[in-house]
From TrEMBL:
Residues 1142-1168 are annotated as: Disordered. It holds the Pfam family WHD_ROQ1. Coiled coil: none annotated. It catalyses: NAD(+) + H2O = ADP-D-ribose + nicotinamide + H(+). It is an enzyme of class 3 (hydrolase). This is ADP-ribosyl cyclase/cyclic ADP-ribose hydrolase. The keyword NADP does not apply. It comes from Prunus persica. Its EC number is 3.2.2.6. GO terms for molecular function: ADP binding; NAD+ nucleosidase activity, cyclic ADP-ribose generating. SMART domains: LRR_TYP (SM00369), TIR (SM00255). One of its GO terms (biological process) is defense response. It comes from the Eukaryota. Residues 1158-1168 have a biased composition (Basic and acidic residues).
Amino acid sequence: MALSTQRASAFLSSAAQLGPQQNHDVFLSFRGVDTRNSFVSHLYHELQHRGIKTFKDDPKLERGTTISSELFNAIEESRLAIIVLSPNYASSSWCLDELTKILQCMKSKGTILPVFYNVDPADVRTQRGNFGCAFTEYEERFRKDIEKVKRWRAALTEVANLSGLDSKNECERKLIEKIVEWVWRKVHHTLKLLDSTELVGLKFVSKQVDLLLAPDADDVRFIGIWGMGGIGKTTIAKLVHDSVGIHFEVSCFLANIREVSERGNLVDLQRKLLFPILKQQITHVWDEQSGTYFIKNCLCNKKVLLILDDVNDSCQLEKLVGEKDWFGKGSIIIITTRDERLLVKHDIHISYKVEALGDDDALELFSQNAFKKKIPDEGFWELSKSFVNYARGLPLALKLLGCLVYKRDQDEWKSELEKLRKNLEPKVFDLLKLSYDGLDEMNKNIFLDVAFFHKGKDKKQVIEILDRCGLCGCIGIDALVQKSLLTNISDNIVGMHDLIQEMAFEIVHRECPEEPGRRSRLCNHDDISHVFINNTATNKIQGIALRMGRLEKADWNCEAFSRMYNLKYLEFYNVIISSSPRRLPNSLRIIKWSGYPSRFLPPGFQPNFLISLEMRDNKLVRLWDGRKDLPNLKKMDLCYSENLTATPDFTGIPKLEQLKFERCENLVEIHPSIAFLKWLKYLNLNGCKNVKSLPREVEMDSLAYFSLESCSKVKTIPEFSGQMKNLSSLNLNETSIEKLPSSIGRLVGLTSLNIRDCKNLLGLPSAICNLKSLEWLNANGCSNIDKLPESLGEMECIEWLFLGGTAIRQVPWSIVRLKNLKYLDFGGCGSQLKYQRNGFVLDSLDGLLSLTRLDLSDCGLCEGDIPGDIGCLSSLVELKLSGNNFVSLPASIRCLSKLRLFRVNMCQRLQQLPHLPSNSTLDINTDNCTSLKMLSGLLKWSRNGEIEMYTFTLRSANCFGLVNNEGCDSLTLRMLRRFLQGFVGQLKIVIPGKKIPEWFSNQSVGDSLTVELPPDSCSTWIGIAFCAVFRENQTNPADDLSEFPCFRIDCSAGGEFLARSDTFKRGNVVSDHLWVIYVSREKLKRKCGQIKVLLETYYSQYSEWSPRKYCSSVKKCGLRLVLEQDVEELNQIMMDKSIITSTTTSPSNSADTQGQQRDVDDGADPKW
């Protein structure tokens, strides 16, 4: 069966995701009372003996867990299943559930083997005999769930119809041998290459190639392995041969086919292939025709593994492997090549491209050759990484470079590294150049142009440039990809391996080693400087590209341009050239010259072939006066041209597609011809703060992006003529517009509208609701918008709606029709209403099922203003309600099953939190909720031992009422106890407090302490709990903190980061607070022995964080190594506290107290 390359690729991608889950080769399903200690025991022993990983249900399963769940996971993680159907199999509902799951997971894979052990297959198929008796009982027992019984019957019928083995036909020993052989064939057709030192970094490759091989299939498979020279194709092929060759009647590896073929010795290869069969008769193969005859006639009935290494011509395939009918069933023919087209031409549809190694694998491969071990010697790590970085994942280069420095000292390493930086190592160059030498002249030029000018660029643009230079860009790039000289183009980017690029540089250098001016392409600083300083340019130069890492001045003679008659590509970046060019070659196709030194372009410059003019950050005042015809120009980028006052006349540039004038702050005049650029797709005038007027009307049929952001003097924008259906993004942020044109409703393709901080904008026109494709609307900060169109709900595609900081007081009812809305922001809408009686009105949220983020902070919301149906937001992840005036919150918040972030900070009237969902991650902020007294029902903990919480954060800075009511110690220990009752991961709490609870047995003054962790063999410890007293560092003469507006605390253990507090603004935490952390054993990464736990205070300035050694905000810290029994101790502590509380409770409250006590006994807290 032949797979297309695309299908194979998709299959491999899927297999790569599923592969790690297959922890077992085979799953054994059986009835224990019948076969556990007899047949199954013997079968399991033989499978294990053959190295087959087998899952067998036994007492090793943990007590207290759900057995069926464990078994179901094992089924999903197994490749094969053996079902031993014995007389009492059907009497076990677990066995029947297993069987149903097995069929669900594996029936389509052909990986189930039923074994009928002392039962008649017909009894299984029709549920007679013992099987019938079992189902009679089930039908009575499961009368309310008869569908389950029907599923079990169907499963037995289905498995009985599969091809299997019957114990009545075989003795037990023979039966077990047949089962093991069946499993062996299914499992061990795979590559077993993972322990080979030659396969460093190719473990994933081996899995993918394994999937393509399928040696147990009956069809003849031709498989291609292709990639650039030195990438590891031959290594993979050899290991395939060595690993699976024993399963074939004939196995042959034909190496270096290209070289052998060039010497005219193809007959020798044919003889090598035929020798295992013909032996002495090999002399009958005297030419290629006779060799072809014998191959066809001698191998057509043989199962053959044949590997053809380094094929470069279809003729070689025709003479050696021809057609599929030359070989017997199950044969596999593997071809390695650098040219994918060769595979396609020979109808080889199953192929695998070998990619470069990742950093870790590359270092290992290099080390194996440089040190004869997997890691570098001490003192050689950084040097080794430099060599590895140079090789860029190319296995051949890594091996050669490793061998180069083997048994040499550091000085010699440094010397060789310097040489490699200057000149490509000859052996690597000679190898890589083989692919280049095989190109025709056109593709050689394309290859060199890409290496010098277009690496990493957009494929479509590169093809266009190459076409304009008289080269067939599309065909050439495809050919170079197939030759592996260009890497696989992902996201439409043209890629090239660095070593390949270095090889291209060397090829051009060899055009004229003595004189750079006589080379075709220049990109080296010294070479380019030589040409301009000494004026040695010639018409040989086709392209110049100089990209400097930092700004550099160049005292050059620009007269050199006058001799570059064939110059097509010119790029200068970060180069300040002292003189202005009086001439530029009219042959230019591309100009990229940042910092162009002249006020105008040369007057005689008429580049009719020019495609792109990019001159950012230049000295230009104008490009030219009057009209200039540039019929091929498509892109003009003059961003950051501080002196530019006017755009050119666009009349003579009809094909312009991109115009960029961003941050041209003195630009005033926009030529009216801009309105008629029919092909213009992209127009960017961001930050042109002196532009006041634009054409009254624009008709740009192709325009897709139009931005006027920060054009602060623009008061009106053009009317849009026609539909302009291609316009998808309109950005008017921070302009002075007072209204949007009514024609905005014609922009039927608009997906993004930005009007942020348009302070003069008085409203949104009703026509905006005609924008059926709109997905993003940002009107944050439009402080004069006081209402929304009633038909807002007609914008059916809207996903992101930002209306924060507006004057909106009431939300239209139709908002609930926005089924695709994901983000809704009204934050700050109540800032003008804080002291008004009638606040922000939002009637309902029902229907917003896609909403993931809701911001209603600072909306002046009072008690009852939050819709009671907020719990219907089943997708909500973030809820921000900060700065409002409510006392309580709707109980339905507990239904927000996906909630991860909850903000109610600065809600100074809020008295208690509602029940919140117990999600895997929950981050709560109640800072400055000064009236908060109870965390009532904060978490609804599970009582079945299942894990529901992974990371929990509670930040309650300055919530003094909460601590006064609950007690600091009590609150801290309650939270810890809750978390430790079967939960793992991380807990972080910030609450007011001056004293570390005594429960933290190790305490220290300052910001660090040392603790001894138990060895890994100790199974009773589950994590560490840490507590610190901190406050903002107010004054410290040793270090001025006045310039640092924020601070945070980082916790590390043994030098490795563990946890980080939230960021606190200066002035927000001026009294003592507790920061409590719990980190599970898993998070400690198996640390053992003595470790130092350190709390460092970091202060921020301009978004950068730095530690301040003498300004620690941590006063004390405490730590406890948490053991399993500590959970019970905390339960007892809490119970004691509750009993003490109950004895001091008045009689009128005794009933409530008893109810609370029952909650404590059940593992719940009375106030939570």
